[in-house]
Protein: glutathione transferase
Amino acid sequence: MSESGVKLFQTWSSPLALRVVSALKLKGVKYETILEDLANKIPSLLQYNPIHKKVPVLVHGGNTMVESLVILEYIDEPWAVGYRLLPEDPYERSVTRFWAKFGDDRVFVSVWRAFFKEGKEQEEALLLALNNLRFVEEHIKRKRFFRGDEIGFIDLIFGCVANLLSILEEVAKVKILDPQTFPLLLAWIEVFSEVPVVKENWPPREKMIVKFKAIREYYLASN
Amino acid sequence: MSESGVKLFQTWSSPLALRVVSALKLKGVKYETILEDLANKIPSLLQYNPIHKKVPVLVHGGNTMVESLVILEYIDEPWAVGYRLLPEDPYERSVTRFWAKFGDDRVFVSVWRAFFKEGKEQEEALLLALNNLRFVEEHIKRKRFFRGDEIGFIDLIFGCVANLLSILEEVAKVKILDPQTFPLLLAWIEVFSEVPVVKENWPPREKMIVKFKAIREYYLASN
Structure:
């Protein structure tokens, strides 16, 4: 397979699309960006992702892929040589997939819930989020990145935490990453945020705060 | 890596462990079974899977893996030659991973919800489940198995549907797989259920019905 015709559908703010942007840049894959406006979905997005109707969508040589985790695995398949996102060793690969899944299924869901609730419900969601994040804090140990000295698959998945968490904290007025409990996660966020393929694509913080304030108000009003 | 020391922690009824059992048998990997009693968790399960505390857990050469999807990917890595669960082509692999994820994140969650609810809430959950299952019906087309003539990764993932759905239908007194709407899924269930590595491990239907009646009553009473 060639690199010809790689297209990425994304929005200016999607943290899931950001995973794919950073992955493509790390791998050195050239691609074309198609910016979607999710409030006003263009027909091509619906055509490429009729089930979830969401970005990111990757098109390569006429084939379409959706779901950021699935896309990341694809990008790391041998058609795109260069930097490896997943480790070579089968066991280490399974550890990586476990943490990626734990991030998506547990950590982000619980953080998200804490963000969209108020009062007692928020307290409960927060407890669960903190509990999940404690497992991550233990796993990261004192390494620079999740797998050691180099950025990899899990870092890109947990990029959501690096990118969004302090924004959600500010908008919902909750403190999640307390420095006493999460010194290693906070250190990782600092290191991760400075990686060029991450930093150069981060959406502007002020614009994100406006966006997430509006989302939170909308959710709270409709519950 | 060698096949020495492959151990699988499972229960007599876990549909997620069944995925791994069938996969190991398809690959021809010899393994030792450790039967867990989840009502009375033995310390070794808690030690091997401290985060989720659930089966299946696979131990290979001293390494521990959890999450059936992660374990299936590992089993298909090159250490275990023989039958391939995932296709060789990177794009086909990504399609496979998409459907596996869609099964776990959408289909089974919505079917499960329909099973544990009553009245209006059940009707709503059922609508969602049917909608998700319709995408699967479309995807399967007229193939014997999800990828064609041979059993593979997606079949093992959707084994839950084959194995559990008619049991849940009977216990919750709902009809989900109507032959007019889901002729292809029903045909697939029939073919899948007759594959020896599946059939020889299925838990006895009557025992499953007793178990799921008890689970449902417990959930409904505690809500």
